[in-house]
Design goal:
This protein is α+β, with helices and mostly antiparallel strands and 155 residues long. It contains 4 helices and 7 strands; from the N terminus they run H-E-H-H-E-E-E-E-H-E-E.
């Protein structure tokens, strides 16, 4: 009977191992704040995220300065740690600037294997230059491109 239980345990462990998936090298999460009103009927997760982003902004001017789009990039490259510095490049185009491509960069030391970066198009940049029409982000380690993500309108 003990041998049968071991087989069940082995099958269970193999099944769970097959369900595990490898973590993506680059994940982009986008969050928009288009007004500073907190709607009590909105989804609780959205309401909480909006309150978190607006926390500490007391005046209307401070709240308006936080309106815009936030991009959170989660990157993961455990196999490449120590082989070169990591660079996350975020490129985007806005409505009022037409085809001008703006770039934001964040760098990490070569010994880091994962991280989280936030790029934000908010405040005056968002109000004067308009909404983000298209974006692309690239994860590099040294001279190698590890992953890219882009919006549907990026060309």
């Amino acid at each position: 009977m003990a041998g049968v239980n071991r087989w069940y345990l082995l099958v269970l462990l193999l099944g769970l191992g097959a369900c595990a998936r490898q973590q993506e090298p680059l994940v982009v999460k986008q969050f928009k704040i288009l007004d500073h009103k907190i709607d009590p009927d909105s989804d609780p997760m959205v309401r909480c995220e909006k309150q978190r982003r607006l926390h500490g902004a007391v005046s209307i001017a401070e709240r308006n300065a936080r309106l815009g789009v936030y991009y959170t990039l989660l990157w993961n490259d455990p196999a490449g740690a120590g082989t070169g510095d990591v660079e996350l490049l975020f490129e985007y185009q806005q409505g009022a600037t037409a085809s001008l491509v703006k770039r934001l960069v964040k760098r990490f030391k070569s010994n880091e294997s994962s991280g989280e970066v936030e790029f934000a198009v908010i405040g005056d940049d968002y109000v004067k230059n308009g909404r983000v029409l298209a974006w692309k982000t690239t994860l590099r380690r040294g001279n190698r491109v590890l992953a890219t993500q882009q919006s549907h309108l990026w060309q």
